[in-house]
Amino acid sequence: MKAKLTVCCVQLNAYPLDRAEEGLAHALDMVDEAATTNPDLMVLPECTYPAYYLSGWPSRRSSLRPTSEVLALFAEKAKRYGCYLAVGITEESSDGNTYNAGFLLDSGGKLVGSARKQFLWHFDSHWFTAGKASDAIETPWGRVGMFICADGRLPEIPRVLALKGARLLIDLTNLVSTGKDQTRLTNPQVEYMLKARAIENQAWIAMANKVGTEEDSIVYCGRSLVVSPQGDVVAQGSAHLPEIITADIPLPFEPPGAVDGVFWPTESRRPDTYGDLVHPFSELPVARTIKEDMVPEEKIPVVAVLQLDMGGTAEHLATKLERHLRSLAMQGVHVVVLPEPPAGKGPIEQTDALMRLISKTTAEADLGVVLVGDEVDAGEWYRTAFFIERGNVIAKYRKLHLDATEIAAYAPGQGAYCIVRGRRGNFGIMLGYEGLLPEVARILTLQGADVILWPCRFKINRHDWFARTRAVENRVFVAVANAVGEHGIGESLIVDPRGAVLAQAFAGREQAVSAMLPTAEARCKAIVPGTDAVLGREPISYQRLVE
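-> C-alpha cells emitted (547 positions)
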C-alpha cells in the first residue's frame, strides 16, 4: 500500500442552468488541471452538472445531457488520469424520480459507489426526491463514505457511514452564504460543523464546494477543505476563486483514536440507550413539545455558566461559590451551570457540603443550579449531575459515557437521560466528553429539551466547535460551563439555535457570563424554508446507530 493518499478538492465556478454546457466544460478543464498534481482521488462539488438551482426544471430537462452521458465524460477522465473521481450530478432515475446524486468512479472509470442526498435543503424538494442511506465503499485504501452538502448537518448521516467502517468521508457540497465581501464568505459547516464531524467520527473529510452566484441570489462560499480526524484543517481554498485544493492523507488510515487520550467518540457509544433515534417522530416527546401553547415572554430563562477552579477544599470552594451564586441571583439569573470537577472518588462529604450550600442558597432565591459531584448508591459510585432548585434536588443525571479518567472510579449510568421540565423551559443535561457524541444531544432534543446544559473540564477547546454544532443541528440553546485552573481552560459559552455565541467567558480565570434564552426559538426546528432539523430526519435509516 502507498504511504499516502493524495486528494484534490476541485473548487468550481457556479454556472446557472441556462449555461450548463459552459459549467460542464469548466469542470472538465479543472479536472485536467487537477491531474497535474497526480492525485489518487479527485472530489468535485454537488450538482457539478447541470446546476444547483433548477428553476423550470421539468420543462428544461429534455434539452440537457442525460446522466449516463455526463457520467461517461468524467469516467473517461478518471481512466485517463488513473485516479478515483467523485462528482455530483443530477440523476434522472429509472424510477421516474430526480435525485441530487454523487458518484464515485475508480481509476479505470468504473462506477464503484453512489449516494443520493437525503436531507433536502430549502428549495431542493421542488425538483429532487430524497435519497436513502448509502453504504460505505471499498477502495484500495480502505472504506470511504459519501454524502452531499446538507447531509452533513444531520449527524446521523455521516455517523452511519462511519459505523459502517468509512475512514474517509467525501462531502460534495454547494454551501451557500451571504455577505458584502465575497472574499470573506463562510458557512457553519466550514467554520465548525465539519471539524466536529471529523472528530466525532474519527474520520478524514474531503469537501469540494463552488464559488460565485446562481440566479443572482444563490451565493456560494467556496472554502473547499480537507479535515483530519483530529479536526485540523490541513488544506483549504479561498471563498471566491475556482482552484485546486490538495492534501496528502497518511496511509493506512489510522484506527479510531482517543480524543485527548481519554475518550473514544466511536468506541465509547452506548447503543442500548439510543432507542429514541430510531423511533418515529410522532412517538417522541418533541412532537408534543413543539406544539405546546406558550406565552413567549414567560419562557425566557436567564442562564449563567460559572467557570471555576473546582479543585481545593470543600470549604474554599463553598466560600467562593456562595459569593458567585448570590451575585448571580441579584443579576436576575434563573439557572446556573457549574463546571465538571476532576474525576476520582473525592470525599463524598465534599459533594454533600456543596449540595447543602446550594440548597440553602436556592431556597432563598429563585435560582436553579446544576452541580456535578459524586453519588454512592448500593456500593456503586456514580458521576452525577444534580439539578437543585428551591432547596431541593428536583432531577439528577448519572453520566452514561465515562472517559478513561473516570472508568476506574465510577459505574456508568443505566440508560436514563435527564430532562428538567421547568417553568421557563425544558433543560437537558450532558457531561464532559458526552458533548462529542452526536447521539446524546440529539436524544435530549428528541426528548423535548429547549436548552442543553453542559458542564465540562476541557484543557483543549473542544467545547466551542461542539457547542455550536450541537446547537445548530438540533435547533436548541447550549450552555457550556468549563473548568479553569489545573482542570480546564475556561472559555465557557452560551450558544443560540443558529450557532451564534450569545456570551463567552475569558480563558484561564474564574468568571460568570449569562444570557436571556427565548426558548420559543428552540421550539421552531425549521432551519430554512422546507428544511427541518427534526422532521427532516429519516429514523428508519438509522438502525445502525442502535446495533
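The chain has two domains: 4-256, 275-546.
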